[in-house]
Every structure is written in C-alpha cells, then in structure tokens.
Design brief:
The complex is a heterodimer of chains A (320) and B (395).
Chain A lengths: L10 E10 L2 E11 L4 E5 L6 H8 L7 E6 L9 H4 L2 E4 L11 H11 L4 H14 L15 H13 L5 E5 L7 H16 L3 E6 L10 E6 L2 E6 L1 H9 L2 E7 L6 H4 L4 E8 L2 E6 L2 H14 L4 E6 L4 H18 L1
Parallel strand pairs in A: 3-7, 3-8, 5-6, 6-7
Antiparallel strand pairs in A: 1-2, 1-4, 8-9, 10-12, 10-13, 11-12
Helix pairs in contact in A: 3-4, 3-5, 4-5, 7-10
Chain B lengths: L1 H21 L2 H21 L7 E6 L10 H8 L4 E7 L2 H9 L5 E4 L4 H6 L7 E4 L4 H36 L9 H5 L16 H23 L1 H8 L1 H7 L4 H30 L8 H25 L3 H18 L11 H7 L3 H15 L6 H26 L1
Parallel strand pairs in B: 1-2, 1-3
Antiparallel strand pairs in B: 3-4
Helix pairs in contact in B: 1-11, 2-8, 2-11, 8-11, 8-12, 8-13, 8-15, 11-12, 12-13, 12-15, 12-16, 15-16
The chains are: A alpha/beta (320), B mainly alpha (395).
Chain lengths: 320, 395
Amino acid sequence: MPENDIADYPVVLDGVTRHFGKVVAASDVSFAVGEGTILGLIGPSGSGKTTIIRMLTGTLRPTAGQLTVLGEDPRHFRGATRERIGYVPQHFALYHDLTAYENVSFVAALFGMFWRRRRRRVREVLELLELWDAKGRLAGQLSGGMQRRLVLATALVHEPDVMFIDEPTAGVDPILRAKIWEALRALRDAGRTLLVTTQYVDEAEHCDAVALLSHGKLLALDRPDDLRRAVYGGEIVEVRTARSVDEKVIQGIEGVATVRRRGPRTLLVVVKDAGEATPRIVDALTRDGTSAISIDPYVPSFEEVFQAVVERDDASREAA
Amino acid sequence: MRLTKSAVRIGAVIRKEMRELWRRPGALLSLALGPLVVMALFGIGFTGQRGPVDLIVVIPKDLELPRDAAMYQKVAGESAAHVVAVTDDANDARARLSRGEIRMILLAPADLRERIERGEQAQLIAETNELDPIQQGINAVVAETLTREVNAEIIKTAAQQGLARLASSGASPPPVAPDVVARPLRPVVRNNATADPTLLTFFTPAVLALVLQHLGITLTALSMVRERVTGAMDIFRVAPINAVELLVGKYVAYGILGLGIAFALVLGTTNGLHLPFRGSVAAYAVAVILLTFASLGLGLLISLVSDSERQAVQLSMLVLLASMFFSGFVLPVREFREPVRALAYALPVTYGIEIFQQEMLRGHLRETWMQGALAAIAATLFFLSTLRLRVVMRG
C-alpha cells in the first residue's frame, strides 16, 4: 500500500474482505491504483477478481475493510462521481435488438450526455474501436470480438476518469486481444486510470502493475519486471553446456541464489547480478571439465511467475 | 441541469424500450392483433344458449293424468324444456337419463289424488344426472317452473269445474276467468339500463379489460428479469440513473404502446362488433390509462421479484388465472366470501371490468370510487416497484 498521498489515488482498497456464506471471495485485499496507470488483476477463474470489481463499482458491499474510488465510498457514489466511472462487465450486457450505434448512444444518455456531445462521442469511440462501419448493424448480429469492442465503446463514450474492465479479452482471438490492449494503453496514455481483470496471466506484460490473486487472496503486487525479480529472488540466466553437469557445480558460486534443471544440458540459474555472475559460472564449468555453449538472460513467462507465486504461498501456508 | 440530465436518461430508456419492441414485429403484431382476433372469435362464436332441458314425464299406470306430451310441452313452454316423451316406465326413463339422452325425469307420484284429498302436498320428483353445477341449477329452475305451472293448471282445472257447477246450479258465476284464479299475477320485466343486456355487449368490455391487464403484465413481466439476466442491470447500477428514472422510462414506453393497443381495441369493438358506447370518452380514457398503468406496475413488480424468466411467466399466468376467477369476469365478485373478495379488489382488472361495462353500456359509472381505487392501486404498485428496484440496483 503506497504511503504517500494515498487519498490522491483514484482507487484505494484497504483490508477489503468479502464473504459469500462460508466462501471467502476476497480476503484482506489492499492496494491502490495511481492515476494514469493500468493495474492488472490477474488470477484464475474464481480467484476473486470480479468480486473486487463489483465492490469497486458499488454493486457489492464488502464484508470488512474500506475502499474508495475517486475519494468516495462506492456504495454512496454521487451522480457526478458516477459520470466519471466506466465499467465493462464480464459478459456482453448490451441489447441485441439495438444497433451498435444505438447501444453506445443509449449508455451515453444514461450517463447524462446531451445530444450534440453524445453524437460526437459515439462516432469517436466507434471509430477508435473500428466499429464505425458496423454502426447500423444489430448488436446481436455482430461477431464475438466486435461485441467485446462494443461493450468497451459503451464504457468509453462518456470519457470516464476511472475504468473497471472485467475480462475484456475472455474468449477473444489473439489478434483482437492485442487490439484491445492497444486501446487500453491508449486510454492510459490519455491519463485514464484502468483496473483490468484477466485470467490470461501473460497479459500482465501489458499492465503497469499487476496484482496476482488466488482464492481471494492478494499474493503479489508489483510492476511486471519487479515482480519477476521479487518472485525468483534475482535475475535469471539460462546456461547451456556442452555436456550434462551437476547443479552443485554452479550452486556454490558467489552471487548464485538457486539452480534449477531445465533440460539434460540446460540449467536455469537465479543470480543477484547477471553481469557479475556470468564469468564465475564460465570458470566453474571450465574447472568441471566442460564449457558453456551459451549463457543468456532468461525472461520467465508470467505463467511461470504466477505458478511460482502460488507454490510459494502454498509452501508458506503449509509451514504456518 | 440535474433535471435536464434526468430527462435525458428517461428519454434514453423510452427510446430503448420502443426500439426493442419495434424490432420484434412478430411479437408486436401478436400483441396488437391477438386480442382483437380473440374478441372477434368470442363475439362471433359465443351464443350463451344452452338450449331447452330434454326431459321425460313419468306417470304411473293407475294415475289419472293426461299422457299427451304436447300438453306438457305447452305447460312447460318452448324455451325452458323439451318434453321428449310421457311414459309409465320409470326404469326405461332412468336408463335413458344414465346414457345422457335426456337431462331430467319428472316423476308424478302414484298417490297424487289420495294425498291431495287428504290435504297433503304430493311430491313431483325431478331426477337428474349432472356434473355441471350451472346446468344442475338450470335443471332445478326448470323443475320448479314446471311444478308451478302444473300447480297452476290444477288450480285452473278446479276453478273451471267450480264455475261449471255454479252455472249448473243456476247461480251466477263470479266474473273471474279460471286462468286468473290460477295465475293472478303475470310478470313483466322492464330493464331501465340504456343498453339491452346481451352476452356480447356484457362480456366484450370485460374481455377488453382482461386483455389490457394481461397485455400490460406480459409486456413488462419479463422486462426487468431480462435486464438482470443479460447483465444490463450492472450497467444501470454503475451509471447515474436511479430507480425512479428507470421505471418512469419503462412506464412511459410501455404505456404508449398499451394505450395505442387499447385505442385500437375500442375502435375495433365499437365499429367491428357494433358495441354501444354510451359513456364519456374522457372518463373511459382515464380508466384505460389507470388500468394500463396499474397493469404495467403489476408486471414490473412480478419482474422484480422473479429470479428467472420462467418464474416471471409463471407468475403472469397465475395473475391471469386469478383474474379469470375472481375479477367478476365469469362469476360476480359479490358471490365470494369476504377475504377472497378482498383479493378480487386487489386486481386492477376487477375495477377495469366494472368501469368499462358501466361506461360503455350504462353511460356512466355508478361506483365512482372505483376510479380512485384503481388510481391508488396504480400508485401503490409504482411505489412498491420503485422500492424493490432500489434494492435490486443496490445489489
């Protein structure tokens, strides 16, 4: 939880817990989202992402803890504050019998936009999301990807300061996923604050910060690169050798944290500083009678990072 | 500014609902034309005539009574009963009754003369084999009428015999006809209502009221459930729209449609079925508006308490069923016991039927409190819907 000027953060959660009977959907979750950033809430299905979004939009009351959005308790948003919030629900929640244009215009009017501004903004967002050519088509006749973009358009149309976007890329093909993230980054660059949930762990790359969730618990919160470093305890190098070597050969070297076998002649080595450790590794291999074919920086996927975080959490719980 | 934005939001809901309705022309057509077709079929097909009761008169062999079926038919009259035969075989008559060939047997007592001479009443027994309680009631009326007529015939015969004796004894008979002795009073029924009561004229305004209520409920019962099921309610929860704005938008949209259909139905019935319209158009229009809005409120309330579309449909059908039984559509409300009568008066259609019938056929509403009661129901339903929607929107 950032300590400085916390009240200025558009989104703040402090010890937020939500129970559904005996099920704990969110457990003591605390984080803050700074202005003009994308925070990715990442975790598998059932990890509590949507519960947190619903509490932040004021549609669900927390069992315990405090949360504020734009300085207000979401359960008591003023009308003017609601006009500054955008929300993209997880499922397509628009009207199949209305056209793409009518759907966006309807939501714009719900947010109190007058006709002239509404007309201009509807066109702008439909063009931004490449839906202008489909403006006259009924929403129910649009492809799944176009429907997802249409929902995004309805959340953008009133130019909100803070956006809560629940699973924008669920069930979407990779090309469209890239387009959606491109649009989200453009919004971030325009100064908007975005809280995006996704079950695709690799989408953490697109976020300024990621919060990893599992079973309602916040396991980690950091910038993507710092999270990798924090999880593995340093930088990772991939060492490929001429012949198979024992991990112990490298394990004892100064600056090496852990060594893990990845293949018969491939080792993943976590080091404090790759620049300092690499010559030592080369020397150690030479002393063992072999040589390094290559030593390259290794960037673990976020799936690996997430898995490591979950394993670490499981281990600490077992230890406790 | 705040009010203007509120108007923008309400306008958005109205346009959205109207567009959705317009985009489903099949549903709209069946909603608009369906009731007209039902009413036309009702008008053309329903006669309200059950026909005379087929009966056999059983007169024991030794009894000195006429056995001419035509004579008994004349006594019974043509419209109430049809005397199929006069016989002395009670078993055969009962077999025919059992087979459903006739509806009634009239059994003359074998000791008729002896009982009368002893100064006792004799029994004319009417046997039936009926499951339909209404038909059984008709049978009882026919039996009573026939008994009364037979009694009158007996008195008339006695009077004729008495007058003949007086004449033969040389005395001058009183100037009273035997028929007047037997039937001193003859009923003459005059209806002071402005319209002659026919089944068509009586039931058509009731059908109109029932159709309007059902339309209103059907249009809106699924409305909010659909918003919840599709997830659109999540958008409403986050957007600055409140429960009253959302409800007003839906009321206005569906109200316009309901009133349009009501207008078409009234035109159809007055021109197509030549139904009289004797009342004030303004008073009638107020009643239509109140019934429509009360029905929309009932539909919205159903929609807001239902968890699924299936439950909403079931509850709508339940209201329709209750309306058929309790609203006075088939059975008069006054015939129900007190707690059930209260249920009848909780249904908007109960007032709708009474007001429509009186305005259209009588020319004015005698129970003017009914307009107020209907307005109170409409307002209460709006209030309850708003409260419930607030809870739903809070999540």
